[in-house]
Sequence to fold (359 residues):
Amino acid sequence: MPSRIIANRRLFNQGITGMKHETPEEVVRNLGAVQAQDFHQAVWGIGLRTQSAKISDVEQAVIDRKIVLTWPMRGTIFFVPAEDAKWMLKLTASRLHTNDKKKQAELELDEGTLHQCRAIIGNALRGCSPVSRPRLIELLEEAGISTKNGRGYYILGYLGRTGMICFGPHEGKQQSFVLLDEWVPNSRELSLEESLAELALRYFTGHGPATIQDFAWWVGLTLTEAKRGFEAVQSNFRLDFVNGTEYWSPVTGPSASADADSAFLLPGFDEYYLGYKDRSAIMESEHDAKIAPFRNGVFQPIMAAGGEVVGIWKREIKRSGIEITLSPFSPLGDRDEKFREAAKHYSDFMGLPITRIES
DNA sequence: CACACAGGCAAGTTCTAAAG
DNA sequence: CTTTAGAACTTGCCTGTGTG
Fold:
């Protein structure tokens, strides 16, 4: 059952309400990491948590190497603070080892071939020059390494997860790659225990109230490891029981519930939704399938009113402007106006006018 | 030359059952 | 109780092709 208390505190701790952050990198650092499977969705997730950043500001943060895009945690794409990419990858990569072995066998990628891939990609990227994905694929093909059937994509992902490469700035619509160590020369070095503790600190600071299970799921850790990490930083958090479940929140933060009338248009895959294993605190579970058909796969952008997920929305970027379609689960009534204001916020971020909005 | 459309490809989740 | 392994399933981006 949705809980107003949990929803409001999460909105605040996630940086959606209350004091907004100044810069994209502060947003990312506060959340620990920002899910970014869909780049264009993720930049808005960062933007809406800042005071007034535009999409170009988020892109600039990537160019300036403040934040990087790579494959930590559950092996999916996240924005992370540049200096934290290395230890985050190291902490989580080992968890994906068995998956990798299986996948490599399936794709017939042996150690020798992977070694060859590392050499080719390393040579191409050395000197901090971003190279586009198609070009890297081409280089592999030229060396006689087939990239068909998902092989090329897997190779790049594997080199990413093992900390060799990460995404660089976009080149037009193309993704590019760089060598992580060259791109980010000031990586922090943390031991396993320090990594677990640091990540727990970041997660609960930016996501609380949350459960240990949420944390373990989010990172892709076992419960045992998650508990160990959390116990090291537990003094920073306070415990609440809601419907009999243990939730941990930062000791600093709102105690009373805040603006029940707030309305936000959050992107697909937003941390507000994807940041938790259990999403029942912010949405009636009967709507699960509307966010993601069969409750998995591609997650729709969500409408949040007073912290509760009350609908999904869609945008189409045309040359002349943005067309927005709101699809609330039930009639919005006087909230409609609030969501139109939220749409305006999005349009400001994108620097494009809204040419059509309907609900 | 601009635009629409189709096809291929890619990403990531949850669920279940079984094993440790 | 926790972890592992496998299966199912979708939306949207990108590219190539055809049409006016």
User: Anything to note?
Assistant: DSSP finds 16 helices and 13 strands in chain A. The longest strand of chain A covers residues 308-317. The first helix of chain A runs from residue 4 to 13. The mean pLDDT of chain A is 83.
